[in-house]
Amino acid sequence: MKKTVFILMAVLILAGCQQQAAQQAEIDQKKDVGHKLILKSFVDLQNKDLKSAIMDLQTSMKINPSEPEAYLLLGQILLKIEEYDHAADFLDQAAKAFPDNGTIFYMLSISNKMAGKKLPAVLAARHSVEIFQAQQDNANMLKSAALLHELIDIPDEQFTPAKKGDVPPAAGNAQGKTAGQTK
Q1: Domain-embedded: residue 92
Q2: 108-142 burial by CB neighbour count: b if 16+ within 10 A, else e?
Q3: What's the total number of domains in the chain?
């Protein structure tokens, strides 16, 4: 009887391990597909196919919503095509999904600035400073602090939405590189 119980328990444990391995394999596969879509979006951008790049990034986010790189790149595209309100809304959602990502908050601050939203721009810049400071990332903390200082120094009456053709300051992320590059 004890032998039967032991065998039954071993079979159940083995089945549980196999199920966990299958779930992990599925997660890994989703991460891989999401990453390949991000890489494809870079090719699309090089070919000046914004529509395909945006679709690839949106698909990547659906497949693997835990990867901030797709959010950062799409935010950069929205800033580049001067969709400042859309970029601000999108990056606000990304900031909720990645509350410890200083680069997302830095880009959110820029998009709010360009959309003429001073208070949200100041708050996002301040939060990016705090995140980078906590991560002891001094270079990005200083960039965020400079943006915060610039925002605070702009008088409220001069704070207006950017016009088409205005270039956002440091439209790339706070790390001074595109989302696909790494250190």
Answers
A1: no
A2: bbbbbbbbebbebbbbbbbbbbebbbeeebeebbe
A3: 1
DSSP secondary structure code for residue 172 in this structure:
S
- CA 146 – CA 12 distance, rounded (Å): 58
| 142 domain-assigned | yes
Q: Is 119 part of any domain?
A: yes
A 10 A CB-CB count for 43 gives 12
**134 band by pLDDT with thresholds 50, 70 and 90:** very high
In the DSSP assignment, the letter for residue 156 is G
Given a cut of 60, whether residue 173 has pLDDT beyond it is no
- What are 144-169's pLDDT values in tens digits? 999 999 999 988 877 777 766 665 55
Q: Encode 16-44 in three state secondary structure.
A: HHHHHHHHHHHHHHHHHHHHHHHHHHHHH
